[in-house]
Amino acid sequence: MSAARDSAAAQTFRALVESADRKFVRVRDAPLHGRLPYHYFHSVFKAYTRLWKFQQENRAKLVEAGMQRWEIGEIASRIGQLYYAQYARTSEARFLLEAYVFYEAILNRGYFQGSSKGLGKDLSLRYKELRFFARFLVVSLLLNRMEMVKVLVERFRTLVDDSKATFRETNFKEWKQVVQEILRFLKSDTTVVHTRPLRYCLKYDSHQASAPYVARFHAKRVLKLHDVVLTSYHRNEVRFTELTLDTFRMLQCLEWEPSGSFFQVHPIESSNNGVLHDQTEASGLIDINLAMDMTDPTLPPNPKKAILYRPNITQLISVLGTICEELPSDSIFLLYISAPGKVGRHCNSQLDISGVPRNSENVKVAHQNCHPFNESNKRDSSDGVEDYVCLGPRGGGGGLNNLYPSDLIPFTRRPLFLIMDSDNSHAFKAGITRCREGRESRSSSFSSETSIPAPMCC
Question: Does the model's pTM come out above 0.70?
């Protein structure tokens, strides 16, 4: 874009792009879990808001100087990425909606399609378009916009096939695999007949007015679900990118289903001279705060969710420790782990197809000394059950991939709701309970009034 450098507007545009990109990289590489200084996101959003408004106000000059349409798409895509990252950090639905608004505008206006001569065979531009489709698919899945998902899948598959034919010297095997992942994901998800939304819906679930009646079951205080950690590890598990089917369904269950009118985007907007422009035409006028009008103010905030894709044990414990330290006193955090255990033949014969004991009275769990640092509880018990779930390949790391009940004991000092989706979940529940009872019986410094509540397991 050499001609653009001759224009004052183009030079300002380039300076704004470079400044925004530097801030974008800093936020992109920041961890999604734990506290992050407020000025990080405030600074990068401010930079991209200024950049976006500048290209809107100076569109004619920039196009005349040589600015390409894909450059507008790149800015919009990065703004969408920022909003999605903020959603991943806060679980606020408005950020996810903002990402959807920008991604939908990119799709409708074909910013990455390369309408100019020669851009259709630009490999770097093609990669930008492929990554855009993958990101848009994730956002659409999380918003349960299945009609849009179907459109995106078909166009994504066509784009991958065209890429293989156009760029014969380039191997698109990984992108072909991504297409297979989303097709398998959708096929597996649709096998479950949804008679109601997975997300918590005021139309189907208990009304907010029932909260006082639920509160009486709490002896001293009502705990609010504040943080959630979702993770899974299975061989050949159904997933799309880093979103597995197990974590996706749990994520949906922990989101509020909007009860108001949603996605009613105004079809037209007014420009400065009073001329009406259709939102779908290539005007580049995307309302950066449009999603604020699409949110449902009647809903309470969603709990903050951390999705960990195949973490090692150290990473999982590190995230749990950060959450426990920052958890408010009136809050509870939920830990969901979907992973295989190692169930011996004696115990395995007493499980039905769902992994639930047929006769819980006949299922024995060896009583062991479950001190958090006692290795004896990690060995095979006499009934053939090993008290762990495996978050990694079998036999890899000499047991370093195994998560034991004692690993979670330190986190039960804070209110914890534990869901073990495993064929060895019953052993996990028994192990944590025994460890808690053993620790409390040895401690004389806590009275019955100040003892810490045991975690809820299922």
Answer: yes
Select the highest-mean-pLDDT range: 80-89, 213-222, 377-386.
80-89
Please name which of 228, 225, 244 lies closest in space to residue 236, comparing C-alpha atoms. 244
Q: What CA dihedral angle connects 250, 255, 256 and 261, to 10 degrees?
A: -110
pLDDT tens, residue by residue, 163-215: 999 998 898 999 999 999 999 999 988 755 555 667 766 555 665 565 565 55
Q: Which residue bears the tokens 């009583």? A: 367
What span, in angstroms and rounded, lies between the C-alpha atoms of 290 and 180? 33
pLDDT band at 440 (very low <50, low <70, confident <90, very high): low
pLDDT tens digits along 371-410: 333 344 444 444 444 688 889 886 555 678 899 988 998 9
Residue positions counted in the chain? 458
Question: Partners of 201 in the beta sheet?
Answer: 257
The phi, psi pair for 287, rounded to 5°, reads -70, 115
Instruction: Check the CA dihedral 64-65-68-69 and report its sign.
Output: negative
